[in-house]
């Protein structure tokens, strides 16, 4: 169905438009994220200007909710694209909202903090899943370049992150927190401009469904309506909602109402998914939908461990790591930049290792890569255990542990994250393509929430226990998936077999 596309370096030019748009968007996202927690716990007398003066616990709580919401909103963001605007316009809307959000954060007033975060959450929800689906849309079914395309796109993501984490610490040290937030805003405006300029190269992707497809389409309203026609599904959803409300009501504090609301939302999503499953035409589609949902469990585990980067590991870096190098103190955000730097260095290497395995007909399915990636990332926490040991003995720990931990995290991420994006675009039913991508990001967001909770628990159990727990859990979970690989792969009905070079 795709028209002939202009190419550059063997990929459609549209890929590079999306690459640079996403690069600037991620610059703003990761730049802001790298100072968020330390801004919240900074005192009024902080050297970078007054922070919010929150306790670490409060900061971890907000961080957890923030990272979760940023990605959870991808579900409505995906639905908006599938059903109303199409992906391309939804991305545009997201870019505008993000520019406003980061701009507002640059304002040095109390109201601005939560307002800015609100805009950013909705903006990312509109932009992130849909721009990713559009990358998939550049390639025909079965085109072997699709995985590579996502790897290239992933380099753009991390180039943005690397640039941001390299500069934002310096900007904050010189001009204060709000200049840092402002820099993120400027980056997002650049992203918006790139996207507007590049529209001519992406005319054929991310458009609203044609009228013809629309006729056979079922609206979200109809899907919910169908729930009321099916007592079993209605029953399951009602029970889930009642449990959620009870949970929120019987616990005290805003946090618990937050959980109550989250579980009600997830119950509605489960209701919707059951109806979509029922609505899918063929057994193949149903199976693929199922295996995709199952793979999202692995995604939650992966990001639950990985997202320690912006929380627990960020504070560990700030407070317990000896950051002096040649007489200079390395700013904390730069350590988060290590992840991005390693990605840029290693993305092609990791992609080639897997490609070689595939050529030799060895196991290299997406699910296998995702499971292996989770194990490798989990093993990275062994170095954090060693760091804690050294801190306990000497009162500070060397930065080599963080460097090694981030190296393993990165190799794990490269085996898992770009692969999952591509996997979603291969398996999702066309009319729910954006929604499924939204669900994928929502799973990463739930992982982010898990990471926040682990951070909160570190006050009670200590970092040593948390890091050890992460190693044990991720390795066991990854091994279970590998053990179940055969039946899981059967559910994909060969979606990844016979991929060929296409132009
Ligand atoms: N680092 C990746 C990105 O920003 C993955 C984020 C995620 O999937 N939660 O795109």
UniProtKB/TrEMBL annotation:
Pfam families: PTR2 (PF00854)
Domain Major facilitator superfamily (MFS) profile: 14-486
Membrane topology recorded in Swiss-Prot or TrEMBL: Multi-pass membrane protein
CDD domains for the chain: MFS_DtpA_like (cd17346)
Sorted UniProt keywords: Cell membrane, Membrane, Peptide transport, Protein transport, Transmembrane, Transmembrane helix, Transport
InterPro entries referenced in this protein's UniProt entry, alphabetically: Dipep/tripep_permease, MFS_dom, MFS_trans_sf, MFS_Transporters, POT_fam, PTR2_symporter_CS
GO biological process: one example: oligopeptide transport
Highest taxon, organism lineage: Bacteria
Recorded family membership: Belongs to the major facilitator superfamily. Proton-dependent oligopeptide transporter (POT/PTR) (TC 2.A.17) family.
Name of protein: Peptide MFS transporter
């Amino acid at each position: 169905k795709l028209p002939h596309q202009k190419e550059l370096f063997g990929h459609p030019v549209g890929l590079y438009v999306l690459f640079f748009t996403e690069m600037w968007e991620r610059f703003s996202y990761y730049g802001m994220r790298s100072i968020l927690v330390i801004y919240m716990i900074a005192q009024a007398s902080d050297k970078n200007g007054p922070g919010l003066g929150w306790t670490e616990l409060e900061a971890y709580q907000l961080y957890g909710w923030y990272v979760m919401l940023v990605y959870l909103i991808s579900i409505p963001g995906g639905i908006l694209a599938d059903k109303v605007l199409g992906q391309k316009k939804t991305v545009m809307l997201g870019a505008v909202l993000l520019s406003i959000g980061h701009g507002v954060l640059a304002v040095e007033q109390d109201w601005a903090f939560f307002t800015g975060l609100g805009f950013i959450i909705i903006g990312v929800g509109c932009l992130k899943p849909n721009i990713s689906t559009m990358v998939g849309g550049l390639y025909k079914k079965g085109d072997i370049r699709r995985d590579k395309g996502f790897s290239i796109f992933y380099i753009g993501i991390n180039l943005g992150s690397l640039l941001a984490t390299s500069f934002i610490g310096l900007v904050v040290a010189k001009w204060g927190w709000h200049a840092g937030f402002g820099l993120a805003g400027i980056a997002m405006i650049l992203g918006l401009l790139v996207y507007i300029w590049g529209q001519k190269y992406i005319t054929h992707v991310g458009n609203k469904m044609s009228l013809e497809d629309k006729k056979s389409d079922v609206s979200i309203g109809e899907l919910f309506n169908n729930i009321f026609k099916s007592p079993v599904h209605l029953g399951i959803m009602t029970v889930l909602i009642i449990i959620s409300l009870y949970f929120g009501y019987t616990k005290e504090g805003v946090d618990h109402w937050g959980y109550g609301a989250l579980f009600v939302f997830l119950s509605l999503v489960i209701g919707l998914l059951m109806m979509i499953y029922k609505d899918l035409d063929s057994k193949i589609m149903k199976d693929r939908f199922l295996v995709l949902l199952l793979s999202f469990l692995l995604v939650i585990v992966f990001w639950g461990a990985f997202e320690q980067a912006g929380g627990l590991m960020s504070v560990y870096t700030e407070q317990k790591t000896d950051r002096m190098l040649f007489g200079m103190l390395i700013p904390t955000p730069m350590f988060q930049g290590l992840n991005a730097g390693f990605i840029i260095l290693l993305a092609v290497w990791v992609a080639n290792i897997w490609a070689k395995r595939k050529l030799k007909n060895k196991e290299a399915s997406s699910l296998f890569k995702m499971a292996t990636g989770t194990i490798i990332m989990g093993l990275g926490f062994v170095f954090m255990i060693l760091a804690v040991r050294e801190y306990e003995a000497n009162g500070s720990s060397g930065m080599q542990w963080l460097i090694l931990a981030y190296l393993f995290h990165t190799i794990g991420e490269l085996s898992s994250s770009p692969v999952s994006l591509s996997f979603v675009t291969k398996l999702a039913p066309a009319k729910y393509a954006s929604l499924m991508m939204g669900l994928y990001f929502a799973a990463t967001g739930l992982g982010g929430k898990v990471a926040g909770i682990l951070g909160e628990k570190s006050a009670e159990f200590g970092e040593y226990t948390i890091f050890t727990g992460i190693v044990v859990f991720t390795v066991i979970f990854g091994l279970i998936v590998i053990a179940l690989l055969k039946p899981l792969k059967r559910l994909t009905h060969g979606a990844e077999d016979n991929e060929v070079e296409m132009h």
